[in-house]
Amino acid sequence: MAVRNADDILIGGGRVFIVEPSATTGGTPTFHELGFLQGEIKGEEQASSQTIKESEGGTVLIIATDKEVHFTFSLLEANLETLKMLNPSSGSLNNAGSDDDGFAVGTFQSDNTFLVEFWHKKRSGKYRCFRIFKGKISGAFTSLLINQDNASPTPVDIIAVADDTKSTSQNLYEVFETTAANAPNGGW
Question: What is the pTM of this model?
Answer without folding.
Answer: 0.74
